[in-house]
Amino acid sequence: MLHSTIHRSPSPRRLLITAGAFAIATALVAGCTSNEPASSDDEGEQQAAGSSNDEMGEEVTIAWSGPEADHGWLAAINSSALDEAEKYDDINLRAAEGTNDASLQIQQVETFINEGVDAIVLLPTDGAALTDIAMEAMDAGIPVVNVDREFSSPFAARTTILGDNYGMGVSAGTYACQLIEEHDIDDPVIAEIAGIDALPLTQDRSDGFAEALSNCGEEVDNRVAAEFTVESGEAEASNLLQAAPEIDIIWNHDDDQGVGVKAAFDNAGRDEFFFIGGAGSCNAMRWIEDGEMEATVLYPPTQAADGIRLARLIAQGKGMSDLVQVAVPRRIVLDAPVVTADNVDQHMERCFES
């Protein structure tokens, strides 16, 4: 099922300066190239940066298909895509109903292909299951922007934009090491509350955390795995607290399940540890402001918004002028910064409600 199309008649564009540029490895890019055609003297050469890509361009139809909004972060992913498209008068958006059914999502993409849209932005419910239909779109000349969950073939997407799960673990572990040093903690007890262990993203987060801790000679002493839900977070955090009478640092992978984790802490009257979260929910940021949480590590829900922007650039034949080679890169990995009391005000605007 497709939602109603978002469409506006062309009108003069106002300049939009949108925070949150793309991080490629460690480089930040915020695309802008001239929208004017090259002069005859410059034909065949790359255009130099000169004006904003946010200026009105050729109208393009961009299709979006994402997951069911059954989790705070996933709801934010969907809304970020829709909100970003509304900023551009030259985007005609075709938005499909969010779903966790791979078969339904395949049908949605088939519809987009039959409609002949100019680009498809897709967060697949299952990357492997959606690979073939994404390749069909690419073979039909429709560029696909793959968001968050990767396809199993590099030929299924023109561009892939990802959060950094391994980087989240590295950021959390590096910050834990910093806390140990700053507070001169001897023989620290470090705990981890993971998400679903069977998922590669959970494995990547745990691997990054362990790797960063090893750099300061530490390791995880107590670990449990929840299911990215409030209920499982509370249950597993309660089990952890019973198993460990004293803890110095806890990293919880997901701020949505963190609502339950925090409830378990409060119910047990335990607050002797530094509490680090993951993803960047508004709850977490409010707890940081109130001194009830030490930090959270971002996993940006703006990936879909970035996907819409990239699809627009690709469909309009534009590039990214902050790169020497301005063509939109094939793979973009966003940063996973640590949010603390020192910088929470800078990130609060983009938090998501659990």
Automatic annotation (TrEMBL):
Q: What organism does the record attribute this protein to?
A: Phytoactinopolyspora halophila
Localization terms from the record? Cell envelope
Main location per the UniProt record: other
List UniProt keywords, sorted A-Z: Signal
The UniProt family comment states: Belongs to the bacterial solute-binding protein 2 family.
- GO terms, molecular function: carbohydrate binding
The identity of this protein, by name, is: Sugar ABC transporter substrate-binding protein
* Superkingdom in the source lineage: Bacteria
N-terminal signal peptide: 1-30
